[in-house]
RNA sequence: CGGGGCGUAGCGCAGCCUGGUAGCGCAUCUGUUUUGGGAACAGAGGGUCGCAAGUUCGAAUCUUGCCGCCCCGACCA
């Protein structure tokens, strides 16, 4: 992409409304624009990141055996009356009336709808287990939206629903999602810690929040130090095999958010290993048994021919919120520092002097070769001054910058800057190309 | 929903108390000089002062109502 064609409205000054770094940088780097409280447009740069996050989430869901579908944003109130949640949900649910005075709602979640879909198409235990998911916009009319996309009213969420015959089988589905989540956040470049969450009236041990540690997190969290750098299952993990060891490894050490915090239990952790921090909830997995299947009559014939309600669980990832979490985790005073897998472009190619024949020629050559290697390039071909170009590229935070200009070319060199470390090296054009290509390609292969 | 704050040019703000027909910095446009980490000079364009009503000869400024946004709290499968 040529910068001269791209739409990238940057701001030098920080808008007064934005309180936290991720919100400030998303506005300054031209990634989002607020439409109303907690509602944002995704501008081209931000949308590219959102799609990358979404795609990684999708790949890991598919790997775990979940099946993608798409349910609508608008739902009928009728279904929610079946489950009893239409009244229970309260004002957080945005209620809409259509021209025929039918009661509708903008979905805050999809348990009812997916249960209806599943009951309509499933008769026998032989059709189980199944996991269905979709990635769709949700709306929750939060009393007070804040922190930009971290706590918006409209947000993009991946939600998976599992259907099993027995609680024991449901546990296996739960473990699949547990492992998929570890892999997903790891691929995004985030260190996540699963923490015990409130299971509500169902009870049991099957609810976890996945927390990314960050100073600006909304929840106070407590955990054992070893959880933070624990290696995640590799891409060769067998989702049909026994996943319990992975789960046990992660859940045997203490980790809890504020609401589940137990001081006495935490004090059993050796003092040096106790970590008290702030965290951002990026995922939540939950087993809820027959909470919806029973009232909504989502049943299958069991081995004995009798109908039994299916055992269900739901598993959410806040896709749009993750973007905020990523910036909170990866930024410095100059701007964003995107990890390669989610970067809006991989390389920022800076032509310091458009119009200079040799600079133009080499930039065009770099651009073609990088694109040919499957690398996404944002080529700054604008006539702006060098200082502005550098500052701009630092702000939007592409992982690598290649700087081409007459001064370097006089000695046959170009500069390569790694945004994350800030390291700058002088290389010949061929070396620079190999260096950058190699780094990016290897960073794109999922572990 | 309770408490607080704010709404003046694309962004950041001053002016309001003490009414007199709108200003600063950045950004934008033109020209000249510059040119490797957010240039300098000269000039230019851009605002129904959130909306409505009221007071007044006259309202960005005073009064009332409404709308919107932000912060703290409560809330957050």
Automatic annotation (TrEMBL):
It catalyses: tRNA(Pro) + L-proline + ATP = L-prolyl-tRNA(Pro) + AMP + diphosphate. The lineage of its organism: Bacteria, Pseudomonadati, Pseudomonadota, Alphaproteobacteria, Parvularculales. Belongs to the class-II aminoacyl-tRNA synthetase family. ProS type 2 subfamily. This is Proline--tRNA ligase. Its main location: cytoplasm. HAMAP family: Pro_tRNA_synth_type2. Homodimer. SUPFAM superfamilies: Class II aaRS ABD-related, Class II aaRS and biotin synthetases. Its EC number is 6.1.1.15. The keyword Ligase applies. It comes from Aquisalinus flavus. Residues 38-339 form the Aminoacyl-transfer RNA synthetases class-II family profile domain. It is found in: Cytoplasm.
């Amino acid at each position: 992409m040529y910068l001269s064609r791209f739409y990238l409205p940057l701001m030098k000054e920080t808008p007064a409304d934005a309180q936290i770094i991720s919100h400030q940088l998303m506005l300054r780097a031209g990634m989002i624009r607020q439409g109303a409280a907690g509602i944002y447009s995704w501008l081209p740069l931000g949308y590219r990141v959102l799609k990358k996050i979404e795609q990684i989430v999708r790949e890991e869901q598919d790997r775990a055996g979940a099946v993608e579908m798409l349910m609508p944003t608008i739902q009928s109130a009728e279904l929610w009356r079946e489950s009893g949640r239409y009244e229970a949900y309260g004002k957080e649910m945005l209620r809409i009336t259509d021209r025929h005075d039918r009661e509708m709602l903008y979905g805050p979640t999809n348990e009812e709808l997916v249960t209806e879909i599943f009951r309509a198409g499933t008769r026998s235990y032989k059709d189980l287990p199944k996991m269905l998911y979709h990635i769709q916009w949700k709306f929750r009319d939060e009393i007070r939206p804040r922190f930009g996309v971290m706590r918006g009213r409209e947000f993009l969420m991946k939600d998976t629903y599992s259907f099993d015959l027995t609680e024991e089988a449901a546990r296996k589905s739960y473990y699949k999602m547990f492992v998929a989540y570890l892999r997903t956040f790891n691929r995004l470049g985030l260190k996540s810690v699963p923490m015990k969450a409130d299971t509500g009236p169902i009870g049991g041990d099957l609810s976890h929040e996945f927390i990314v540690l960050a100073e600006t997190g909304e929840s106070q969290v407590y955990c054992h130090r070893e959880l933070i750098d624990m290696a995640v299952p590799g891409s060769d993990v067998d989702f049909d095999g026994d996943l319990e060891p992975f789960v046990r490894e992660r859940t045997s050490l203490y980790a809890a958010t504020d609401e589940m915090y137990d001081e006495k239990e935490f004090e059993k952790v050796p003092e040096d290993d106790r970590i008290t921090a702030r965290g951002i909830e990026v995922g939540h997995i939950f087993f809820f048994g027959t909470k919806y299947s029973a009232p909504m009559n989502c049943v299958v014939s069991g081995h004995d021919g009798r109908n039994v309600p299916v055992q269900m669980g739901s598993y959410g990832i806040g896709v749009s919120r993750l973007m905020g979490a990523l910036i909170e985790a990866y930024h410095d005073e100059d701007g964003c520092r995107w990890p390669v897998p989610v970067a809006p472009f991989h390389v920022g190619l800076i032509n310091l002097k458009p119009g200079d024949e040799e600079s133009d020629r080499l930039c065009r050559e770099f651009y073609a070769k990088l694109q040919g290697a499957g690398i996404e390039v944002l080529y700054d071909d604008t006539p702006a001054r060098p200082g502005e170009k550098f500052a701009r590229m630092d702000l939007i935070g592409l992982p690598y910058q290649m700087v081409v200009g007459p001064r370097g070319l006089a000695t046959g060199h170009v500069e390569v800057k790694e945004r994350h470390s800030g390291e700058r090296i002088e290389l010949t054009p061929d070396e620079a190309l190999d260096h950058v290509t190699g780094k990016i390609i290897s960073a794109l292969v999922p572990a």
